[in-house]
Amino acid sequence: MSTRNVMIVGVGGQGSLLASKLLGRLLLDEGYDVKVSEVHGMSQRGGSVVTYVRYGEHVYSPVIDKGEADVIVSFELLEAARWLPFLKKDGQIVTNIQQIDPMPVITGAMQYPGELVDKMKAAGAKVDALDCLKLAEEAGSSKAVNIVLMGRLSHYFDMPEEAWMKAMEAIVPAKFLEMNKKAFELGKNA
Predict the structure, then answer these.
(1) Using an 8 Å Cβ cutoff, are 81 and 48 in contact?
(2) Euclidean distance between CA atoms 147 and 89, whole angstroms
(3) For tag attachment on the chain, is the N or C end more exposed, with fewer CB atoms within 10 Å?
(4) Domain map of the chain by residue range?
(5) What is the C-alpha to C-alpha distance for residues 40 and 174, in angstroms, rounded to an integer?
(6) Domain 4-133 sits in CATH 3.40.920.10
(7) What is the pTM of this model?
């Protein structure tokens, strides 16, 4: 099997690291060689965060270069657009439609760009965009956006739901497990 590449992007504090742990655990449990690399940047200040997840028979480096990502999972709409150059031709974006204003927008120096989903589609990306925040709140916590996204991402992986649940049980604290399972199902079935 050739190496496949997934980028998980967002803004600090959204739970992208837990999402990458879940995906990494799933892939390891399924027998793949997996490399995960996290780039925090200004994550504690609401800055851009990216995690690379590469898997296959033999993976030698965790880094994904421009034009190599099979899938980009984005916690925030502008982050999906920001990382678009890393997507392969005909690649898949799975994104939350939530908009979190970056500092230039907060200060009034710039405006949040409009019609980002249409612009990404016009650039050749396949875009699966949904309101993950609404679904996370329905599951019981706005912090479950990450698991809603993983539920949606499961559509693009040929792995049984039981494997996703097993990985979740291994990394999610027991007191949050049922809520996260609900969040996964809501994302999967949205």
Answers:
(1) no
(2) 26
(3) N
(4) 4-133
(5) 27
(6) yes
(7) 0.93
